[in-house]
Amino acid sequence: PRPPVRRPCRVMILVNPLSGRGQALQLFTGHLQGMLTEAAIPYTLVITEHQNHARELVKKADLSQWDALVIMSGDGLLFEVINGLMERDDWQEAIQTPLGILPGGSGNALAASVHHYSQSPPAWNEELLLSCGFMLCKGLVGSLDLVSIHLASKQRIFSFLSLAWGFVADVDIESEKYRHVGAIRFLMGTLVRLATLRVYQGRLAYLPLIPNSSPTHKPHPPPDSLLPGLDQPVPESWTVVKTEDFVLVLAIYQSHLAEDLWAVPGAAADDGIIHLFYVTGGISRPALLRLFLAMEKGAHLACGCPHLVYEKVRALRLEPISRQGVITVDGETVEYGPVQAQIHPGLARLIYG
Ligand SMILES: Nc1ncnc2c1ncn2[C@@H]1O[C@H](COP(=O)(O)OP(=O)(O)OP(=O)(O)O)[C@@H](O)[C@H]1O
């Protein structure tokens, strides 16, 4: 059963003043303050002062004081909040705190996704912010899948958006220097990266989703029962991808990778699926550019590109062989090396329309 729908009233709003173009606070006061006052939603504004501020805060907070934790930033701050909640001794209860997202970054993948789930026509910038503000005022709460990710150092982190290696991870990190231009930074980064397109060697394996099996929603999931140790071979039920030459690997569990990158047309916040994309070596630069341009309209799978593969999976393992590279989780760089992941359907709760 789904958790009951409840309208949050006491809300902690965490704003990263440096996110995106550095205007998150002005956007909040200009567009949202009035809306929240009119909707009679009491809130406390917390302006984050440094990296991991939000993580430490929610780790120690008395959560009985709050009906919802809302993030106004990019996706990086929500990643911190989710991991702060999961690091608590009472994580099973803490992660049930409804979470909200207001776009303040330059990527805003989750904000674009929740707007999309509300079946509204596409929106950008202030229009997207107003849509997310409206959803916050309505306060409908639904389930959100989380993905548990294991790194080589045995660290375990929780992700709500994506795990990326190769082209997508490189563009995400390299384009951070263009953050002041907003969402167009990804297009700029894509063009720059295309000029130095490279192939990454690695091994990829995954546990396919069994067709027609509906994911089981367990509010208190067991440990990662689908994952063997990273030093053990993958089980026989897994599919081992034959090629070791990749241009990119992208595991994503929401519809949007950024405001104008509609990566998974059929995704839902709680579909219990890791949508795994990979592009194999040998793709030409124009073909790769065509895929990213088509992604604006969610049409990349219809391009008929033989190098693009899409699988719905429950767990995966990626073992880079190339010595250097970038792996990102929810757009943040993590340790480079072998990594594996498993979905936990509906583990968290999210405010969306
Ligand atoms: N006051 C602050 N000063 C420096 N870093 C901060 C501050 N507040 C938060 N952070 C950190 O900034 C990082 C980036 O935040 P986030 O991804 O939310 O925004 P963004 O990078 O602007 O968004 P986008 O990736 O969409 O451009 C997070 O890891 C967060 O910990």
From TrEMBL:
InterPro entries found in the cross-reference section: ATP-NAD_kinase_N, Diacylglycerol_kinase_cat_dom, Lipid_Phosphate_FormReg, NAD/diacylglycerol_kinase_sf, YegS/DAGK_C
Subcellular location: Endomembrane system
Source species, domain of life: Eukaryota
Pfam families documented for this protein: DAGK_cat, YegS_C
GO terms of molecular function: ATP binding; sphingosine kinase activity
PROSITE patterns, per database record: DAGK
GO BP term, pick one: sphingosine biosynthetic process
EC number from the UniProt entry: 2.7.1.91
The organism of origin for this protein: Hippocampus comes
Record's keyword terms, sorted: ATP-binding, Kinase, Membrane, Nucleotide-binding, Transferase
Gene Ontology cellular component list: cytoplasm; endomembrane system; membrane
Record bears the keyword ATP-binding: yes
Enzyme class: transferase
Residue ranges annotated for the DAGKc domain, each copy included: 6-153
Protein name: sphingosine kinase
